[in-house]
Amino acid sequence: MTVFFPTSPRSRKRSLASDPAREAVQPFEFHATLTRLDDGLDTLHRSVELLRERTGRSADDRNLILFETALAEIGSNVLIYTGKHGTTGPPVEYALRLESDTATAFFTDHGPPIHNQEARAMPAPTSEAGRGLAIARKVLDELKYKRDGEVNTWRLVKRL
Amino acid sequence: MSLDVQSRQTDAGVTVLAPSGRLDVTGAPSLKDAVSEAVKNGQPRLVIDLEGVSFVDSTGLGSVIAALKMVRSSKGDLRLAAPNQQVRVVLELTTLDRVFPYFATVEEALTGF
Q1: Best CA proximity match to B48, nearest among B108, B113, B106, B104
Q2: CA distance A103 to A40
Q3: Nearest CA among A122, A117, A99, A96 for reference residue A107
Q4: Which of A34, A62, A65 should one mutate to test binding to chain B, selecting the residue with the greatest count of B CBs within 10 A?
Q5: Min CA distance, A17 vs chain B (Å)?
Q6: Residues in Cβ contact with A48 at an 8 Å cutoff, skipping those fewer than 6 apart
Q7: What is the pLDDT of residue B42?
Q8: From CA A47, how far away is CA A6, in angstroms rounded?
Q9: Considering only CB atoms, which chain B residues are within 8 Å of A125?
């Protein structure tokens, strides 16, 4: 089951002193529990769509495109390696926040540890696999992975 | 979201595949199947019409690279048409825009193919 609850705008009232630029960086928060690959990816894209609506950015906004691309790469890796294809086990926790024009996403999962994630370079153009982490690292301002006991945490940061 | 792939053949014998949805880890197998079917039927000149593709990930890209290898091994070729901004950005990021010169429309991709 997936639950999400983006935060409400502070106020929808406009005043003469209101600044459209400030409205564009209102805090945004989204949480979901991901249990299946297909539904989980739908939820990740839906969260970015809500962020796009909140910030008033177009579908062609490059920074948001880059963020969504990295989010889908890390999210699909997490969902695949956690083995959540309809099996039982702790679900993946996902959160997305926007503060001061910086989007930050978090994944927490109980999958196997990821090794050498920092060392994965972009493969040759003819390679059919192995680009996911390299793409994410290339487009994000920060990509952090931590293994703590049996838990993996990912933190993805992109200034929009 | 599953990927639906429509297929048609032009009078010149080029197969146009039109996937619709996300070409990602869940959708890529559908495109691979459609390409295999076209090549198996002796139609190795392919245009992939990306107009209906809302998003591509690295696995989706991998399926396009696999398609290119498949058609070239059958002495055919592959062209991409009508990618949206996200697809163009990912092609550029991965330098695959050098492997896949893409066309703005299917009609342009079919010209001289």
Answers
A1: B106
A2: 19
A3: A96
A4: A65
A5: 35
A6: A64, A67, A68, A71, A96
A7: 85
A8: 8
A9: 65, 94-96, 98-99
Q: Quick: pLDDT tens for A52-78.
A: 999 999 999 999 999 999 999 999 999
What the block records as the tokens of B22 is 């996300």
State the pLDDT at residue A95.
98
Residue A13: burial class (beta carbons within 10 Å; 0-12, 13-18, 19+): exposed
- Report residue A117's pLDDT band, with 50, 70 and 90 as the boundaries: low
The whole-angstrom distance between A129's CA and the closest CA on chain B is 6
Set out the domains of chain B in order of their start, with CATH numbers. 4-107 (3.30.750.24)
- What residue ranges do the domains of chain A occupy? 28-159
The C-alpha torsion from B95 through B99 and B105 to B109, rounded to 10°, is 170
- DSSP at A141: S
Provide the 3-class DSSP secondary structure of residue B40. Answer: helix
Cα four-point dihedral sign A129, B92, B84, A77: positive
Are B63 and B36 in contact by the 8 Å Cβ rule? The answer is no
Q: Do A126 and B69 touch (CB under 8 A)?
A: yes
Count the neighbouring beta carbons within 10 Å of the beta carbon of residue B8.
Answer: 11
Q: What is the pTM of this model?
A: 0.87
Only one residue has tokens 């945490």, namely A153
Which of B56, B47, B46 has the alpha carbon at shortest distance from B88?
B56
Is-contact A98 A55, C-beta < 8 A? yes
CATH T-level topology, domain A28-159: Heat Shock Protein 90 (3.30.565)
Give the tens place of pLDDT for each residue, A73-107. 999 999 998 875 555 668 899 999 999 899 999 99
